[in-house]
Amino acid sequence: MLGIADQxxxxxxxxxxxxxxxxxxxxxxxxxxxxxxxxxTYDYSKSxxxxxxxxxxxxxxxxxxxxxxxxxxxxxVFRNGEMKTSLSAGMTRRSGHNYLNDxxxxxxxxxxxxxxxxxxHSQKLWGGLATLNPAYSRGTRxxxxxxxxxxxxxxxxxxxxxxxxxxxxxxxxxxxLNYLTNLYAKYSPQTLYGSEQVKLGGESSVRGxxxxxxSGNRGGYWRNEVNWRPLTFPxxxxxTLTAALDGGHLAGQRQESESSGTVWGAxxxxxxxxxxxxxxxxxxxxxxxxxxxxxxxxAVYYRIGLAF
Length: 308
Prior knowledge:
Layout: E1 7-14, E2 22-35, E3 38-55, E4 58-79, E5 83-100, E6 103-104, E7 110-125, E8 128-140, E9 161-174, E10 177-187, E11 198-200, E12 214-216, E13 219-233, E14 237-250, E15 261-273, E16 277-288, E17 299-307
């Protein structure tokens, strides 16, 4: 839009029509502005949920919302024809509110902020493209974030230390068929609030799950998908068909016995995309999960996005 190779995007999604008594929707938008070896990035996301349940013959309404702002600045430190490495630093601010029958739950509503440093590396490998992105996050008091003063020893920490590792490999089998695998892991020695934990279950982690998922302080997931582009439609763009198999594991926590376990899920999807508009619908189902999780038999995701 600005003529400097800048990138702008907006996308949104909502929960499956098969989710009885549950509703969730989300919106993401962002911009990336390059200048020489430097790149400035800003992302904003917002989500809302509603969950209706019956307890002791009374209907309860659980609702909530969250917002996340992310700022980062990166610089390329090495580049040649085969690989590129950059260093990045940034900050994140999260805020969330939860309600029960329209009454604010102060114990689960909070503001958190963190500083992040990381390495972004990509290179050609075995006929494909590999990426490796380790990062370290430290919880801060910036932007009015909460303090840990007076908290119990086993309470979640706002001043946390967190290590993450993201890796991927893309391999083009032929002109219209490709394989993509992603690995993501997170570790923290402290107990984290839910917004900082690793989540297993959903369109961006383990497909086949949605409203029911695992979350914890130490764990990760592995995503695999094959994408086939059989044809191109006039105006609306390329048709892509996807088959996916994902898995994840959380290490056990003494404080929360139900924050550990292994999940597997599968999904198939179809999407169309052109230079400006993308649309995708995905149908997933759980394959393996802890007995207490009781996920929906089918999860349907629909997403639409705009790029400029």
